[in-house]
Amino acid sequence: MAYLTDFVKSTLSRVVLGKELPSFPYNIGERVESFDSTIWALHKGTKREDNSSVSILCFDCVRQRDKLPLARNAFKKFRTIRHPDLIKYIDGIETEAVIYIVTDAVTPLQDHLRSNLDPSLIRWGLYKVANVLKFLTVDASFIHGNIRTSSIFITKSGEWKVGGFEALSSLKEDQPAILTFAGLIPESNRYAPPEVRKKSWNVVKEHELWSTDTWHYACLIYEVYNGTFTSPEQLMTPGNIPTEMAPFYKNLLRPDPKTRPSVGDFLDKGMQAKGFFQNDLIQVVLFLENFSVKEPLQRDTFLRKLDMQIDRFPREFCKYKILPELVHALEYGSGGAKVLPPIVKIGADLEEQEYQALISNVLVKMFASTDRTIRLSLLENLGGFIDRINKKVVNDKIFPSMALGFMDTAPIIREWTVKSVLLVIGKLSDKVINYDLLRYLGKLQTDEEPGIRTNTVICLGKIAKYLSDGTKAKILVPAFTRSLRDPFAHARVASLMALNATSESYDKGDIAARIIPCISLTLVDTEKIVRVQAIKSLDTFVKRVEKLVETMPDSAVVDTGRESPSGGIRSTTPSTPSTSSSETWAGWAVSSITKKLVTGEMQPQTSAQPGANNNSGRSSPANTPVPSNTSNGMSLSNASAANGLQIATEGRNNSAGGRPADGYSVNRYSSALAAVEADEVANDGSGGWGNEDDVLFTDEGFEPMEQLEPSTPSPMPSFATMKPTQARAPLRPSTNANSSTSLGSAKASSRLGFGVMDDGGDAWDGDDDLFKSLNMSNSNAGGGNSSNSRPLSASLKPLSRSPSTSSNASSTTTPAPATGFIRKEEKMAEMARKREERRQRMAEAKEKRKDSSLGAKRI
């Protein structure tokens, strides 16, 4: 009945825990069932603030009221004693119902012993227990009195931590718990030394402080290697205890407490040369714990050894014991660059969350270090950890620091930085790749070290797939072709190989015009390795361009489907100009010939016929001789005019509405010059440039011209009625805005003699088009006089009259037969002389205008 009452009270205390302990910031989880041989119940727990794992020792004050002094003593000692090898106290609370002690997350040693604990960890654990007992009994003058497997806990790193503080006491206390309450500890009689079993716990005061703990430590060694014992006699048989440890173990079990060695002595024996505590794991951990006070040479030797042996140590121990020590040494500068390789090796086994918490932040911080050895070590080991770091962290934090290596004065830093690009390229943004990174690589392509130049080309070829299409077109060809001229042979080979590897990135134009010509130069390179690679690369690009041009048409000229004079469809082929329309080639041919005409290199025809053929569909008269011109290898079979050349046809055909598209083309300028020559032949010295028109040419430019009264426009003669053989007073376009193509009166025409007109018959084909081409009268659609019209004279330079021609403006004159053009030099001299005479006439005209009643108006 009493048991049932205690159980109900215990249950109620747990139910109302939230009310009794409102400020307890931990969640109590499930109980560890294997931990059942002490006064405590071990629970897993979490901290509410950050959800971190903890362990909680719970004592039920109601059910175990008789053992309450032991729990209270343990709670007190947890709060007052600190040592690295004691279980770490975090928090605790005591009420009338319960006592909670919060510690680091631990598991009972008993659970690990059942799973065949690693022998190296067992020795390391025994070393740690011996070390803490030495501290308690020698340095702090305490007696633990409860060393056994149930009072030892193991952290996630595999380290042993000592708990079980129920009997921990100092004999200097008023009422030491070990003397009064040690017998209440479960199974205390089984672990009690012989002198205590004979008398009581009070006998402890009569012997050395360590005598009791030495016996208990021997019991722990036996249980670790052989399991649970039932009688003290079993302890005398070493069993599975290592042979090098067995003799010292037996000394710990001496019946006489005065002859028992202390745990400190046992520890010293084990740490001697070839002692039982002299193994690699213990030596590594002890060195790391004192890493900061070691000499630099000792550190380097140790780290090299650790890097080779790290794979032999237990995984959990490396992750949670060795790794934190190495990271601490790296972060605070005591480890140097050689600490990084073992860190990278251990980090490979970490989970993602653990990696971010333990390693990532420190590595990012180290990239900003100014120590070249650390930066070099980071670059050399980059492949071991870069995949474990977040993409954003690499792009925003690591690469900006790493990029400083591109400009470092140490060549080895620059070289390793280039190599590291291949490892980080997948985590960089497009902006960083296409702008920042390429700018650095461009500078390194002209580095003074040939090896760095070579690696830069290789790097650029391998990261080409990450570049945008626009960047590829602008960067790759110039970069690789530049390296083809590198004096270092291996750089040239690397460039050829890079071109070969990126051949799919180029279009046919770049391949044919820029790449193949550059590769061809290396076919005769002085180095054989370059020539061999050049042949391979050239073959690749030739096949590539053959594939690209397969889909190209046979000709770039599109069939216009025009109707031929015979009624069929006429095709246009650039290779046969005789069958092409005038639009495809005649314009070029006429321009070429008129250029010769202007420069005086072409002889005029002795006889000319009206336009033999034009685009209006008219056919040439019968028996009309067709002059030909073979200039530049092309035949002009349908171009005949008064000067042996049909000038203005192209301008008329290629413009909308019969007007030229360009008012200042070469053909029109040439037509104007030919018209001027004809005008000077048909007029005497005073009739060709009369009154207002004379003032158009001055020394410095155009002068204002008097506003003339518009003359009555006469109809524009048709092409069928114009002849070049009969000369009349030269015609001038009317300034009437109603008709930009009409011709003015004879008087006005005589002032600008750009052609002659017959009363009937065929006209000089092209004159009408010539006037329109030169846009002599810019009329408005609404009619009226256009004051801003530009006369034809304004677009021409004055030409001299031929001395062999003279005529009256009112009489008809037959053009003199052309026996040959004046040479260019003579013509220029004649023009200069005539220009001076014209200036004198223009000065006289200005004097006459002063007396005129018409006002002057600037055009």
Automatic annotation (TrEMBL):
Domain Protein kinase: 1-277
Low complexity bias spans: 571-582, 739-750, 802-819
GO BP annotations listed: tRNA export from nucleus
CC terms in the record's Gene Ontology section: cytoplasm
Molecular function, one GO term: protein kinase activity
Residue stretches of biased makeup (Basic and acidic residues): 822-852
Spans annotated as Disordered: 556-586, 602-637, 705-752, 775-859
Lineage top rank: taxon: Eukaryota
Protein name (record): Protein kinase domain-containing protein
Lineage, broadest ranks: Eukaryota, Fungi, Fungi incertae sedis, Mucoromycota, Mortierellomycotina
